[in-house]
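Appendix B, Record 12. Input sequence as logged:
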Amino acid sequence: MTEPFDLLGETMYAHDLPQFRSAELIRQAEQERLAREVARRNRAARREAALRTAETESHSPRPRRSRFPRTA
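Logged structural output:
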């Protein structure tokens, strides 16, 4: 039988390590997925707020005049 060892204050056996590592990787992947989702929502909220601001700042429906004079 394999010898137990102490990892993070708990007695574990060598055959427990792959399960422990797998569970840790799953938790890490979930945290990263949640962070990406939050970032995506924040970007979408900023885009939406920018669109609302741009719409309210516009005083007339016609486009802005050209900066360059007409050629003769």
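Residues 44 and 50 are 10 Å apart (CA to CA).
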